[in-house]
Amino acid sequence: MLWNKRMPNPRAGWVGLMAGLSVGAAQAAYLQWETVELPASSGASCGNGTPYRFFVNRTPLTSKTVVVFEGGGACFGQNTCLGLPLPTNDPKNGVLLALNPDGIPPNYMTSLVNTNAHTSGSPLGLINTASFGMVTPFTNRLGLVQKVQTQGWNIVYAPYCTGDIGGGNATVVYTDANPAKPLAYYHRGAVNGQLMAQWLGKNLARPDQLFVTGFSAGGYASTLNYLWLKQALNPVRSALLNDAGPLLDAPANATPEQAPTLPLYSRVRKVWGIDGPNGIVARIQAAVPNSQQYGLDPSNFGSVMPALARMFPHDRIAMSTMMEDRVLPRFIYEPFFSDILQAPPGAQRDTLIMKRWKQDVNAWVSMVQTTAPSNLGYYIPNARDIALSHTLTCVTFAGTAIPELNMPSVGSFIDDLIDGSRPVMRAQTSVQTTQRSGLAAIYLGMADLLLAVLGA
Predict the structure, then answer these.
(1) Which of 94, 171, 202, 390 has the fewest beta carbons under 10 Å from its own?
(2) CATH number at residue 278
(3) Rounded to two decimals, what is the model's pTM?
């Protein structure tokens, strides 16, 4: 039995499903992870020069598609790009590094063995959280821990191995930690994302709905690569959720006191080739020659999400994060402010970091409220007892309620983002409490699983 991929027949049911499962080598089997390797000649690469691979899990029952970008830290130095911790790190709060320094194996989604460094040395750290989509409900079809409607969709998982939040295009030789052994590192996130989108456009049906998301570094990547996915897949309806990768507002004429995220942005723009002739800024400008009329400021990452919302006024776009995130702010501020580096690890250092984080988050919220279109929203609880309050969509949505706004979890926000027709919700808590997820006991024994995949 054959049907038009662009118009799936929902009544085909299990008859069509079983027929699909028997498809031969000309088409990948349904409900299995298909490995797609981009050729080296295309320019795609992991940081260590090995091939970039992503993974597709198809269903014959719908054209709806979710694309998930993996998180995993960032790097702009020799040790962190090798997956080694910085000497300033507090072991109790994890380590700052980039995930998958050895690349992405072909069996990444089916192997339970974790080849990455983990933080505690626990035997549990040997488990690969990406396997079988365990790391987030968006990639786990079974929904044993958390249900979400996209579990019945076509699923695309984009692993992270370039250390550049999905926005780089540069080859850098790092010598800062060990000049005798220079490290050639390929920041190719922007290239990988664009080529992956092109492959999906040629090999998947036009989606009735497209949902693009990512967590941590993958949150940034989901936003920076959204344009390519829109162009390649041309979905009927589309939504974007950037989870815990906020592109904070940092105008080039600001000072670090006014926009504390500015020193990080200034550093990585050069190192990762963001402003280069083949960088992501030039690529966006080539794809959308009039991008500045949408408010895209090439010198300010904070302009990207509002510009996308103006560029695609019928799309629904949002960012989620936690006010007490204890992971991402360390990447953003710790290496760049002397008062933070001079403070002892612990409460004193955390206070200095969180002061800057809350300043940046609140400034972004204010910018959205005053200048952004109504199809750009946000969801910002305070804290939860999982992964140091970093990400809302890893493993479970539990502990992400905003009670004073009658929001039981980020799951309600996601459903509205995907299916809603009214202006996108804008919800931020005013209550400084840490929510209990009900998984704390399990989490304490498996902390390194999440922290490893988050690059923390």
Answers:
(1) 202
(2) 3.40.50.1820
(3) 0.90
